[in-house]
Amino acid sequence: xxxxxxxxxxxxxxxxxxxxxxxxxxxxxxxxxxxxxxxxxxxxxxxxxxxxxxxxxxxxxxxxxxxxxxxxxxxxxxxxxxxxxxxxxxxxxxxxxxxxxxxxxxxxxxxxxxxxxxxxxxxxxxxxxxxxxxxxxxxxxxxxxxxxxxxxxxxxxxxxxxxxxxxxxxxxxxxxxxxxxxxxxxxxxxxxxxxxxxxxxxxxxxxxxxxxxxxxxxxxxxxxxxxxxxxxxxxxxxxxxxxxxxxxxxxxxxxxxxxxxxxxxxxxxxxxxxxxxxxxxxxxxxxxxxxxxxxxxxxxxxxxxxxxxxxxxxxxxxxxxxxxxxxxxxxxxxxxxxxxxxxxxxxxxxxxxxxxxxxxxxxxxxxxxxxxxxxxxxxxxxxxxxxxxxxxxxxxxxxxxxxx
Length: 404
Ligand code: GLV
Ligand code: MN
Ligand code: MN
Description:
Elements: H1 3-10, H2 29-44, E1 48-51, E2 57-60, H3 64-69, E3 74-80, H4 93-108, E4 117-122, H5 135-141, H6 146-151, H7 160-166, H8 178-183, E5 184-192, E6 209-215, E7 218-226, E8 230-231, H9 243-261, E9 264-273, E10 279-280, E11 283-291, H10 295-309, E12 314-319, E13 322-323, H11 326-335, E14 346-349, H12 354-360, E15 365-370, H13 386-403
Parallel strand pairs: 3-4, 3-5, 5-15, 6-14
Antiparallel strand pairs: 1-2, 2-4, 6-13, 6-15, 7-11, 7-12, 8-10, 9-11
Helix pairs in contact: 1-4, 4-13, 9-10
The structure holds glyoxylic acid (GLV) and manganese (II) ion (MN) (2 copies).
One manganese (II) ion binds at residues 84, 91, 126, 351, 378.
């Protein structure tokens, strides 16, 4: 199956016909279709698929444990297949499809890597359903506590434990997975770029592929704003206790604080109760996503938001900054040099990735980015040209030849 063939097979799965965006949430029937697709692609290539304790999928070219015993643990390529609500086609799937295509390219060239390769599909990377991004890799490494994960609930009150069980994965198995971790000698994730760094690289001439440098520290906070329900017509303004007014203050304060501290802050999800046009709300639940070049900048934004909210937000997740292994980063940049010999562009990002979680757990990890002409991501408008995607596949294959 070619890159284009795989892409065409995935295209309709979880796609909203009205917006063109994707709704691919962890442990749903749509997710099961995606996981089945992954297994079928692995089977086509005679790869052995294993599922780890967190439900992440691994498709191995050879026995990973024999390689561990021989002191040469495998090299893993991969990404994720889930999406944010109304997400783009590329964030995640590009890395998985490119990994399969890179393996095909290596095999067509007769390249025999000296250690096994695996293609990984991480579960629940976006955290769109249960609120914790990179849940699969955090569970794998122990960065997310299994009891906490099991008790997280989705918007409909379904717990992660119930969702896992309904999808056929035993929730009791969650927990740091030493056996899987031992098998990972290195991890490379190819991802669509989520900014315009590559489009503007090389003095505006652009570059199809770049290398990740670092991930900004970031986190998610929940705000529970209480008020008093009342009639929208008969309650005098002076008598109201309207939590949406507090929310308005929170949103504008998040923006101004982010500007002041060189950070970014977003209130992208809000629930208003009871959500009636002619009723003053009694309660607002809102989520803040804040990121910055340093932890201190992010903490300063959150402190300002707490001040505007009149209450301390509850930290749902925190991801410290990731600096990818500089030696691996520089090696990748040199390997992927342009025709003029200039190394591939090296870029930081404010987006979170499983590669960051693995790097934090001490696994040598790196990332390749593929040019996104507008930089738009987490949106149906997310895009990469096919020629750039194929350049990404070829870059990934080159990286494997050098590293495996
Ligand atoms: C994941 O894509 C994130 O950065 O939120
Ligand atoms: Mn994403
Ligand atoms: Mn992603």
